[in-house]
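quick one, two chains, predict together pls
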Amino acid sequence: RKEVEQDPGPFNVPEGATVAFNCTYSNSASQSFFWYRQDCRKEPKLLMSVYSSGNEDGRFTAQLNRASQYISLLIRDSKLSDSATYLCVVNMNRDDKIIFGKGTRLHILP
Amino acid sequence: NAGVTQTPKFRVLKTGQSMTLLCAQDMNHEYMYWYRQDPGMGLRLIHYSVGEGTTAKGEVPDGYNVSRLKKQNFLLGLESAAPSQTSVYFCASSYPAGEGDQPQHFGDGTRLSIL
């Protein structure tokens, strides 16, 4: 099993719809989790951290399920500007090990 | 506050040439990283540093060397460039990974082509 796995997509979603991505991780000792957004030919940018109790930032909701070892990102009322690749990041918080998923591509359709 | 700055932004080299990519951060971060990103491969860690004067190998270190002589700078060197090193290179920095919720901050990348 890969350390961090994401569905590569692409997810083609009409504007205004709700879309959700999952990311699974293999090491139960993982302690910190993040979602990054990467636009075409640009650098990854932090979208949000993922906390154990779940957290929300506007239209974005992140959740962590330690028992099943996955994190999720929910985007409500999707906008054309949400089109990007979303990277899942898992931080072991030891051995300086940070693992990036390969990303899920999202296309919001007008 | 510039964050993480990479130079150059673009470069074309011939096979066998050498060059150095510079990464500078002004956030007083202990940790710095060099990644390469290729289509379909995601981000792959080349080398990283947990502090001034220290470096460590990542997932794909062969063909690259690094140096961290100053806390704010992390240099990536290609001694003899090969076409397989054509890629987009990203530098990142962060506070120590062991101190909890510490995301990485990225530079805007260097596009390197080896002919």
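Residues 10 and 111 of chain B are 5 Å apart (CA to CA).
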